[in-house]
Amino acid sequence: MSSVNQPEKKGRTIFFKNSPKIISTSTVAGPKECSGIIGSYVEKALDDDMFGESTFEKAECKMLSTVIDGAIKNAALEREQVDVLFSGDLLNQIISASFAARDFNIPFLGVYSACSTMSESILLAAAMVNAGYCKTAVAATGSHFASAERQYRYPLEQGTTRPPQSQWTVTGAGACLISESGDGVKIVNGTMGKVVDFGVTDVNNMGAAMAPACADTLIQHFKDTGTEPDEYDLILSGDLGALGSRILKDLCWEKGFDVSEKHVDCGEIIYKVIEDEFQGGSGAGCSAVVFNSYVFTRMKQLKFRKVLFAATGALLSTVSSGQGESIPCISHAVQLEI
Amino acid sequence: MSSVNQPEKKGRTIFFKNSPKIISTSTVAGPKECSGIIGSYVEKALDDDMFGESTFEKAECKMLSTVIDGAIKNAALEREQVDVLFSGDLLNQIISASFAARDFNIPFLGVYSACSTMSESILLAAAMVNAGYCKTAVAATGSHFASAERQYRYPLEQGTTRPPQSQWTVTGAGACLISESGDGVKIVNGTMGKVVDFGVTDVNNMGAAMAPACADTLIQHFKDTGTEPDEYDLILSGDLGALGSRILKDLCWEKGFDVSEKHVDCGEIIYKVIEDEFQGGSGAGCSAVVFNSYVFTRMKQLKFRKVLFAATGALLSTVSSGQGESIPCISHAVQLEI
User: Fold this and answer.
1) What is the pTM of this model?
2) Cβ separation B110–A107 shorter than 8 A
3) pLDDT band for position B5 (cuts 50, 70, 90)
4) Is A305 exposed, middle or buried, given 0-12, 13-18 or 19+ CB atoms closer than 10 A?
5) Hey, what domains does chain A have and what are their CATH numbers?
6) How far is Cα A179 from Cα B284, in angstroms, rounded to an integer?
7) ipTM higher than 0.85?
8) Angle, CA of B321, A152 and A71, to the nearest 5°
9) Which of A17, A18, A159, B47 has the least C-beta neighbours within 10 A?
10) Helix, coil or strand: residue A282
11) Cβ B99–A132 below 8 Å, yes or no?
12) Among partner residues B57, B194, B319, which is closest to A57 by beta-carbon distance?
């Protein structure tokens, strides 16, 4: 697989010459998420988004544990055969990931890039496997509507009205197992994101805040790899929602890259009909669920052969917003082929 | 430098055959921290821990920006020459790291392992440089007493009494620049931590919570590398404090590894006299400051030639503690030589 003349890195893109592969995935999602088209691809559909736990946070943690365990089992591996777990989530101090990791006797490297955590985790896991440090790695993340609402916005009990530019945090989690060998989806390269801040301060308008970071990474990726948007079967952004997706397409078009034909946003397609969710889904679980269920399945079916997956994260906190800061955003991307 | 027969990884330890090096560091710390012995090694001693900012959080972010910039300048590099920044901190959604990264036009990979963030960042940065993905990487973290108190415990204005088993979050930050070439401290290998939870629920007794995770990683390191504690000039733990350090020594001794002669804890040595601080310093900034100032300088002076650095992190949040959870902990270690 190695090409001697291909560099390890160009610009912000790392090339994985040894073709680490995603050999299995696992997903779980709540009832609302599973009522849509994506839902039919989800491995474990929940009847109740409490998942048998006493708190939303414990339910979120259990979803993560479930998909980490699921990805390992779906690869027909034992836990002892997994060399490292990369995971993070939206809760303060990434407690869902840390507490999930407690259930597994696997080295754990905690990461955080908000809703870009899925692609950051895949990028780092692929880098470790490609370098020969590890034979197998799991990348996982998730989110929960109710735990996110009470941490970032208002307690649900308050019944606060949502503005039309808002999105709905996905209740769900996804994991994938990356291996040096076996059949699966090849991780060809990864483009590291930079923090981009266009000065958006409206915490209900994440799509507008994140779109410039996504455009920055996509354009950098096209330049570093010498590819064109049309070469991809799918250019998948994380959770820009309907409004953010339109901004992304405009920003790319302005720079000479027309992604409009190939672009799909996880947040736009996860819900059946967008009503309460306004602009669509968001949260680390949004792209984790859509990528690891629908997109991975369609790649295995050879319906999509070449995919660029750029999850997008807003790196704000309630404290930073309270102190008048704008919203810095980031997007990490991985190129996948089968 | 390569040895063909040496594996890339054994157990939980990754061996860096191409010897990535720490070629420069930078540190900043508050007045209280700089009054002790370590303070004389700190690059920038603050007169005022507000650092000219309007909030504690902004001061923390500015400290991080300062040391990232400092490490780059001390290596006589330009920002454009740095391939990636690994950083995280204790604040919710690692806002200090994310907002600091906004000031630099450098790819940013956010990490989180609480007070083990310094060694996790060095481990990942060394892995990227060693694999040839990057020529240079910066690893950075920090903490601030006042922002940590109001996030994790009580507002300072409340004047809450501190229990005797507590520690004092260090106001300070540290960064190091890891390069494939140049003179510096070699990063020989890194041992990835696992989440260890002995069931401690007292959020004021972090030393007792973290000591088992540190012991687990140290013992794993000795086994993976075939080294003995006596081979090291220094076995440096992150922020166990006085009580935690005694527990660490006992736990290692019980497993047949006597670290007592070589062990030093960053939290135990950072303050001049331990009074208000009770068990000593803590926080991500604790080991970041001690390692990147005192330890790095002494290594460059050849006073320490072989150091095992295992920063330690408690992966709790106020929500997890409030929901009755115990404190899962982790410790990542890197072996350094000159």
Assistant:
1) 0.97
2) no
3) low
4) middle
5) 9-179 (3.40.47.40), 185-337 (3.40.47.40)
6) 32
7) yes
8) 70
9) A159
10) strand
11) no
12) B319
